[in-house]
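quick one if you have a minute, typing this from the bus. below you get a single protein, a line of residues and a line of whole numbers that encode the local backbone shape. could you go over both lines and see whether the tokens make sense for that sequence. anything you notice is useful, everything is just below.
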Amino acid sequence: MKIKFKNDMFKKARGGYSRLLDISCEQCGKHLFFYQKDGPGILKRMYIDRISESNSINLNTNLICPECKKILAVPIIYEKENRPAFRLFIGAVTKKIVKSNR
């Protein structure tokens, strides 16, 4: 897998390091996409510009698992940075750190 990490002011503001997460539905285990997580801490929201390899992301609708139809997140605009994101429901997704060939 060849995913190029974004290196911008948001990454630098969060400590300058990133990791690639494999995001899956908690209920059915269906792989959804890969996500670049910047900085430390838990995953509360997912910024749209950090989601990779997904063709079904639409900021106008909820993030729904295509397999089991469970609602995983709702769209928001993160006001501090004025960035579109998805606000995750607790326990809706599983995350696994994967290696990428940068």
In short: The helical segments are 9-13. The radius of gyration is 13 Å.
